[in-house]
Each structure stands twice: as structure tokens, then as C-alpha cells.
Write a structure and sequence with these properties.
single chain; alpha/beta; Rossmann fold; 6-stranded mixed β-sheet; 3-stranded mixed β-sheet; 11 strands; 33% helix; 17% strand; binds guanosine-5'-diphosphate; binds zinc ion
Length: 305
């Protein structure tokens, strides 16, 4: 029966299956009048939330695109705001799992700081995942992890060997669109496969162990987890890595700098060699961690190029 078919279709949509649809009515008209309606996305993007009027089991009409919470752009720009011509690659991404290994390879905390700054700028919730906790590792890893916890970040200790932390990770992904990122060899593919077998190849993650993975595509796709939530694919990883933060906005992407901003002598202080800099004073006073400050300086120089 039609009623039965509809029920099945809705159940599939709820499980994250895609259902074909086309824009109609007010949306189609609005899209034509796109130049005037700046708030409407110029085109639908992966991740967009829409209101659909169901026609039958196969088709529905997209009647409305809901406002986006975030936009990951296709090009090397912060967002569509800073470059309105940049196409949206992925809409509504809201979480990033930044993976490092406790050892093999040794964690690169400068790179972690870079990812955290990008997440702050893009308003994405970061989760720091320290994997391979089953392997003996340096005590300094725990100390550094404590610093990030004190800054308010979630730190998760995981192992794909023992299963430690995997259920916690699964819980954190429910109801979110999440991207896994981090250097090669830290266990991203293994983690994603521990969450859902076969997911690493689906999301295009090249496993450093097997060298297997899907080849680069320019479009992004989302993959549903049976336990709830969605994973973004490797196209999203590349777009996030290319995220560009204007130099005057960088300091506020280091959360512990925020209380001191506005206290510097120069209002356009970049906190490097200016006199009477509140940030550098806070570093001297031990209120801001020296290594985090160095990460800031390094990123600032990168942005200058
Ligand atoms: P990716 O490049 O980040 O996707 O990393 P992979 O998932 O390919 O993992 C790299 C290597 O680390 C592989 O040999 C994995 O078997 C191994 N590995 C991944 N996770 C763990 C873990 O939690 N503990 C240990 N001991 N090895 C792991
Ligand atoms: Zn300053």
C-alpha cells in the first residue's frame, strides 16, 4: 500500500538513506531570484537540511532549505562570507575529531594547535582523540593532554587494539556531522572502521597500513553511522586543512588569549614584537603556555607566507 511504502521511505530517510528530490514552488522561484535573496544558498550542498514534502516512496519535493550552521568551502578561503563566490563543499558540518597517536608517530602538538585554531574560526566543535593508548608512550603526552583539558577541550583516549574509548567516541558522534582529521598513520582509518566496518574505504580514507582508499574527488559526501550521526569524507579533510584565517583574527582562535585581547597598547597588535603587548606579558607571567604561543607565532608566519 502507499501508506506502507511511505512509512518505509520515511524510516529509510531517518536512517540516513538519501531520497531523490527536486526543488519546487517557492524554493525554485527563490533560486531564480538568488541575486536578491542573499540568505538562500545559491545551490544545495551536501549536508543541507531541507523540508521535503513526500510524494511517494521515491520522490519528494524540497520546499525549503533550512539556515546553515556552518559552511566548508571548496576553495582555499575561510567561508562564503570572506569569498562569496566560493562554492560550498559541505554544509552543517559541526564536529571535528582531531586524531593523534600517543606514539608511532609521536604526537605533533603544533599541528594540533593549528587544527584547534581552524575549528575555533570555523565554529566547529573539536574533539581531541589520542589513539594507540595501548602502546607504551612518553609521560609528556599526558601532561600536554591535561593542558588541552584545562583549556576546555574534550580529550579522548582510544585504542583500536583494546577497544578503549570507542564507545565513548560513538556516543559523541550521535546527532552530529563529524569529520576525522589528523596526520597519516595515527589510526584514523582504524578508528572509523572500529565504529563501522568498511567505513574507511567509503569515506575515502587512505589507510597508511594498506594504502587502500578511494581516490580524490572534489565533491563531498556524508555517510550515516548505524549508531547515529554522519561522517564526512576525505574531500572535507582537504577543505578543512586549507582553511585560511585572516591574521587579525588568529589570536582569538587561541581560546586562552581571549581574556587579554584588547589590553594591548596597539589596537592592531599581532602580539609578536609590539611594545606593551598583553599577550606576551601573559606568556612571561606563565598565564599562557609558551608552546601554545609559539604555535600562534608559527601560524601567523604561515598566513603571511
Ligand atoms: P591512518 O593513516 O591515520 O588512517 O592510520 P591507520 O588506521 O592506517 O593506522 C596506521 C597503523 O597503526 C596501522 O598499522 C594500524 O593497525 C595501527 N593502529 C591503528 N590504531 C591503533 C591502536 O589503537 N593501537 C595500535 N597499537 N596500533 C594501531
Ligand atoms: Zn599584543
Amino acid at each position: 500500500t502507499l501508506r506502507g511504502k511511505l512509512k518505509k521511505a520515511f524510516a529509510e530517510a531517518a536512517r540516513g538513506r538519501s531520497v531523490r528530490g527536486k526543488a519546487t514552488g517557492p524554493l525554485a522561484r527563490q533560486q531564480r531570484a538568488e541575486a536578491e535573496v542573499a540568505t538562500l544558498p545559491s545551490r544545495l550542498s551536501v549536508g543541507d537540511r531541507v523540508k521535503v514534502r513526500r510524494l511517494d516512496a521515491e520522490t519528494g519535493l524540497i520546499e525549503e532549505v533550512l539556515p546553515r550552521q556552518s559552511e566548508l568551502a571548496r576553495r582555499d578561503v575561510g567561508s562564503r562570507e570572506s569569498n562569496p563566490r566560493a562554492q560550498t563543499l559541505l554544509a552543517n558540518l559541526d564536529q571535528v575529531v582531531i586524531v593523534f597517536a600517543t606514539t608511532q608517530p609521536e604526537p605533533h602538538f603544533g599541528m594540533l594547535d593549528r587544527y584547534l585554531a581552524i575549528c575555533e574560526h570555523a565554529e566547529l566543535h573539536p574533539i581531541i582523540c589520542l589513539n594507540k593508548v595501548d602502546l607504551p608512550h612518553d609521560k609528556s603526552v599526558e601532561e600536554t593532554a591535561t593542558l588541552y583539558q584545562q583549556l576546555g577541550y574534550t580529550v579522548l583516549w582510544t585504542s583500536c587494539e583494546t577497544g578503549q574509548g570507542i564507545e565513548q567516541l560513538r556516543e559523541l558522534l550521535k546527532g552530529h556531522i563529524t569529520l576525522f582529521t589528523g596526520p597519516s598513520g595515527v589510526g584514523k582509518s582504524s578508528l572509523v572502521n572500529a565504529l563501522e566496518p568498511g567505513m574507511a574505504v567509503r569515506t575515502g580514507m587512505v589507510s597508511s597500513a594498506t594504502g587502500k582508499g578511494r581516490h580524490t574527488t572534489t565533491s563531498s559526501q556524508l555517510y550515516p553511522l548505524s549508531s547515529g550521526g554522519w561522517l564526512a569524507d576525505s574531500a572535507g579533510i582537504r577543505a578543512l586543512a586549507a582553511w585560511n584565517i585572516p591574521e587579525e583574527e588568529l589570536a582569538s582562535c587561541f581560546v586562552e588569549f581571549r581574556p587579554y585581547l584588547g589590553e594591548c597598547f596597539y589596537s592592531d597588535c599581532l602580539h609578536v614584537d609590539e611594545e606593551n603587548c598583553a599577550i606576551r606579558q601573559a606568556v612571561k607571567d606563565g598565564l599562557i603556555n609558551e608552546r601554545r604561543y609559539q604555535s600562534y607565532v608559527r601560524m601567523l608566519k604561515e598566513e603571511e607566507r
